[in-house]
Design a protein that fits this description.
The structure holds 2 protein chains of 2 kinds. Chain A is mainly α. Chain A has a single domain, classed as MetI-like fold (Orthogonal Bundle), CATH 1.10.3720.10. Chain A contains 12 helices and no strands. Chain B is built from 20 helices and 21 strands. In chain B, strands 14-15-16-11-17-18-21-20 form an 8-stranded mixed β-sheet, sandwiched between helices. A 6-stranded mixed β-sheet of chain B has the order 4-5-6-1-7-8, with helices on both faces. A 5-stranded antiparallel β-sheet of chain B has the order 13-12-9-10-19. In chain B, strand 5, helix 7 and strand 6 form a beta-alpha-beta unit. The longest helix of chain B has 18 residues. Classes of the chains: A mainly alpha, B alpha/beta. At the A-B interface, helix 9 and helix 10 of A face helix 2 and helix 3 of B. Chain A: It holds the Pfam family BPD_transp_1. Chain A: It is a multi-pass membrane protein. Chain A: It is found in: Cell membrane.
Chain lengths: 307, 588
């Protein structure tokens, strides 16, 4: 099956990406400070004490040896221990779960809203409702997400006291972070759906479908939407990286216990092992999502199926 | 469009002819009640469909009623087979849609019926084709699918909008034959919308001639073609290139257009010692790579062992269908692609062995005019800027204003238009600008690659006359690449017929058109629709498609030699092989 070969090829690419990204991050973070210094609690620590701490953490070994240890740990599944917070595996798996939950909720909600609205706007191009939808989308795009998060907290947590302001305690905690991410996602998806739908509706095969006597519903939701969803999927794949970036900020605003929060804390403490692991997982996720996008793309569009 | 009236008799065929902007496509959409989807509407008048169950008024019918008519009682074949089918659904899915909708079939019976329909339009391996996607089919095969779809519910009326314009002539002949067969089978009336008088003459019982949204003339096909009464129709007919119109003449001559009759003199080639350009054994291939390491597994044999020569003041036409490699030859000659082997001699100099600096001079000598004048002019530059640029590049700029004025004058455009932008011109004028730009650097050879193919007939005739006048005045040589045999017959001194990257026959125009020898040349000439209402077209062979020139590495086509038929008339000696291939006896 050529498809398996293709997946294998992308897997190989993923390995290169993870190595390149983690190597860079591991090297760069070591330039920014010394965890041993961060650990000292009182002022009267002798240089000998610091050296002992470094030895204990394995930081006195050459950089490449440390990096190799980390890589082989990643492959064997032994993620090791953090400098300050015990074993890494449970930390990362909790954070990964929280992040994926948040990302998927925002994505699903945004698609449920943006597809019908985008289709409607495209079909009634130039009408008042189209103008309103476009205006709303532009407004959504104009909010910086951290600002939107803070405003939501001020309204719904501080003033109204309806929703918890931070942490992940109950499903209600999910609402505000998901809305914050979702607004931006919806605003852009809406534009993509509207534009690609307009393009597709002008294609000749749409007129052919109408000339066959198909109902408008069938023309729009069978023929037009499947064709325009190809562009939407491509866009979602490209957008995934920046979605991750946005997530980090929103996680911090809501103190959401996800990968972003974990990474930022690890950077502040120079906790190399956690940071390296988090970055590796994010890189793997991005490669995996892009692979997924390619596979969906092939399912949607027979023209790019592998021969 | 205004005030148009016509009636299509049951079982009869009406053709609407006219040039771009005449409103002929709007008419077809109106007849289907589809106009509102393009933002138009019928402001007055009636369109009535008479059927066995009473008549229906299309213009006032509700969308629900119209949906039951569309694809069922009235169906349509659109112009572009490449964009008429939804790329993401299988052919079978798209044919069965209408069957399930209008004939209430279940998926299973609809699939059987779809296979039967594809069989009816002579689709090879009909049942397997149902699971294929449009992009896996050639243009001709897609158009067969469209026809199968259109006749699937046995419509009373079939509207065909330029249904063969984008197809090769041999494929066009097949499609026209299939439509005739379908009409006979189901007793369907038809409206043909076309700009091709040859097609119209073959298919229509009655003709409506339109211009600028008005009906200019209507009547029986024979009368309109042979004795047109309206001035516009007469001008239109005069501009139609007719194959066979040049029989018995040695040299090409311009169209006898209204007001230009005086220039209709023969254009002979001046005597000369050596050819301007000579190709010897030129072979151009493109690599096709595949797999992880990008190994070359196949090669496109775009041009194989091409040899010909063109003299000053001479036009050599290169004819052939899709994939014949005629454009590759043009691009190789202008060094847009490098050949694998062979020589190109220009005024006796081997230009492929020159160093890049010296070669630049020869780039000036050989100019290209493309098919699409919109795409080949920069929309953000004025005509003046577009004309000056090549002169500046080649250091020919002395007096810009005078030079631009002279160039525009040479192509019959007012020099005041120099500061306009391309969008302010019509297609024909834009093509003239492209010609002027080619002339700007004073070339010896102009490669005209489908230069007039996209133009309306009357404009096409004017541009051809212009090109012939420029040839006579400046001693230009043309390599005229085209698939329109009637135009080729009009303009060329000599003709080379290409098939799958090879020249199969070459000779003077009279030799090729009056005494074709190679079976492919014969087939090509037979496929051209003739504008003569008194001869009904011969039946064509409905099987077969044009094969592609892609071959696996290490499996080149067997090289062939040439036999001389007469002085200067050569034919590939593989003609028996060709006939066997056509009959499917052996694999190419």
């Amino acid at each position: 099956m050529p498809i398996l070969g293709y997946i294998a090829k992308r897997g190989l690419q993923a390995i290169f990406v993870v190595v390149a990204v983690t190597l860079f991050i591991s090297f760069a973070i070591r330039l920014t400070g010394d965890p041993a210094v961060m650990m000292r609690e009182s002022a009267n620590v002798t240089p000998e004490d610091l050296e002992r701490v470094r030895e204990g953490l394995g930081l006195n070994r050459p950089f490449l040896v440390q990096y190799w240890d980390f890589l082989s740990g990643l492959v064997t599944g032994d993620l090791g221990a953090s400098f300050f917070r015990g074993p890494i595996a449970p930390l990362v798996s909790d954070a990964l779960g929280a992040t994926v939950l948040l990302a998927l909720t925002s994505l699903v909600v945004s698609l449920i809203i943006s597809i019908p609205l985008g289709v409607y706007a495209a079909r009634h191009r130039g009408s008042v409702s189209d103008q309103i939808i476009r205006l709303l989308s532009l407004t959504g795009l104009s909010f910086p997400n951290f600002w939107l998060g803070i405003v939501l907290i001020l309204i719904f947590s501080v003033s109204l006291r309806w929703l918890p302001a931070s942490d992940f305690r109950s499903p209600a905690s999910l609402i505000m972070p998901a809305v914050t991410i979702g607004v931006i996602l919806t605003a852009t998806n809406l534009r993509i759906v509207r534009t690609t739908m307009l393009d597709t509706l002008n294609q000749q095969f749409i007129m052919v479908a109408r000339a066959k006597g198909l109902s408008e519903r069938s023309v729009i939701y069978k023929h037009a939407l499947r064709n325009s969803s190809i562009a939407l999927v491509t866009y979602l794949g490209l957008q995934f990286g920046s979605l991750m970036g946005g997530l980090v900020v929103v996680e911090l605003v809501f103190n959401w216990p996800g990968m972003g929060t974990l990474a930022v804390e690890a950077i502040a403490q120079r906790d190399y092992p956690i940071l390296q692991t988090v970055i590796s997982f994010l890189a793997i996720m991005i490669v995996a999502v892009n692979l997924l996008v390619d596979l969906v793309y092939m399912a949607l569009d027979p023209r790019i199926r592998l021969e | 469009m205004r005030n148009l009236s016509f009636r299509v008799p049951r079982g009869g065929t009406l053709a609407i002819v006219g040039e771009s902007g005449s409103g002929k496509s709007v008419t077809s959409l109106a007849a289907m009640g589809l106009l509102k989807f393009t933002g138009g509407r019928v402001t007055s008048g009636r369109i009535t469909l008479n059927g066995p169950d009473g008549s229906t008024e299309i213009t006032s019918a509700s969308e629900n009623v119209l949906r039951r008519i569309r694809g069922n009682r009235v169906s349509m074949i659109f112009q572009e087979p490449m964009s008429s089918l939804d790329p993401v659904f299988t052919v079978g899915n798209q044919i069965t849609e209408a069957l399930k909708l209008h004939r209430g079939m279940t998926s299973r019976t609809a699939k059987d019926e779809a296979a039967r329909l594809l069989d009816l339009v002579r689709m090879p391996n009909a049942r397997q084709q149902l699971d294929r996607y449009p992009h896996q089919l050639s243009g001709g095969m897609r158009q067969r699918v469209m026809i199968a779809m259109a006749v699937s519910c046995r419509p009373d009326l079939l509207i065909a909008d330029e249904q063969t314009t984008a197809l090769d002539v041999t494929i066009q002949a097949q499609i026209l034959q299939i439509i005739r067969d379908m009409q006979a089978e189901f007793g369907t009336s038809a409206i043909f919308i076309s700009h091709d008088m040859g097609v119209v003459s073959q298919m229509a019982d009655e003709i409506v001639v339109m211009q600028g949204g008005r009906m200019m003339e209507t009547g029986r096909a024979r009368d309109v073609i042979l004795t047109p009464s309206d001035d516009y129709t007469r001008a239109l007919m005069a501009a139609v290139p007719r194959i066979g119109a040049m029989t018995g003449r040695d040299a090409p001559r311009p169209f006898p257009l209204l007001g230009e009759e005086d220039i209709a003199a023969d254009h002979a080639v001046p005597e000369q010692a050596e050819p301007l350009v000579k190709l010897e054994g030129v072979t151009t291939r493109y690599d096709v790579t595949s797999g992880l390491l990008g190994r070359v597994t196949h090669r496109v044999h775009a041009a194989e062992d091409i040899s010909f020569q063109i003299a000053l003041g001479e036009t050599l036409a290169l004819v052939g269908e899709s994939g014949s490699g005629k454009s590759t030859v043009g691009r190789t000659l202008q060094h847009l692609v490098a050949p694998v082997s062979g020589w190109i001699l220009y005024r006796g100099t081997d230009i492929l062995s020159l160093d890049p600096e010296k070669r630049a001079r020869f780039k000036r000598e050989i100019q290209y005019v493309f098919q699409d004048p919109v795409g080949s002019l920069n929309p953000r530059r004025t005509v003046r800027q577009s004309l000056i640029e090549p002169m500046r590049v080649h250091n020919l700029l002395t007096d810009p204003d005078r030079q631009v004025a002279e160039l525009l004058q040479a192509v019959n455009l007012p020099s005041e238009h120099a500061d306009r932008y391309p969008h302010e011109f019509s297609d024909g004028q834009r093509q003239r600008i492209c010609i002027a730009r080619a002339l700007a650097v004073d070339p010896g050879l102009i490669i005209a690659d489908e230069t007039v193919s996209a133009l309306d007939v009357s404009v096409q005739a004017q541009v051809i006359n212009l090109m012939m006048r420029l040839q006579a005045e400046r001693g230009l040589a043309y390599l005229f690449i085209s698939l329109d045999m009637a135009v080729v017959e009009r303009v060329s001194h000599r003709v080379a017929v290409m098939y799958l990257g090879e020249i199969v026959e070459i000779g003077t125009r009279r030799q090729i058109f009056e005494n074709p020898q190679h079976p492919y040349t014969k087939r090509l000439l037979k496929a051209v629709p003739v504008m003569d209402p008194d001869t009904r077209p011969e039946r064509v062979d409905l099987s077969g498609d044009i094969p592609g020139p892609v071959r696996p590495v290490g499996n080149p086509r067997r090289p062939h030699g040439f036999v001389e038929i007469a002085s200067g008339h050569m034919m590939a000696d593989d003609h028996q092989l060709f006939e066997q291939e056509q009959q499917g006896e052996i694999q190419a």
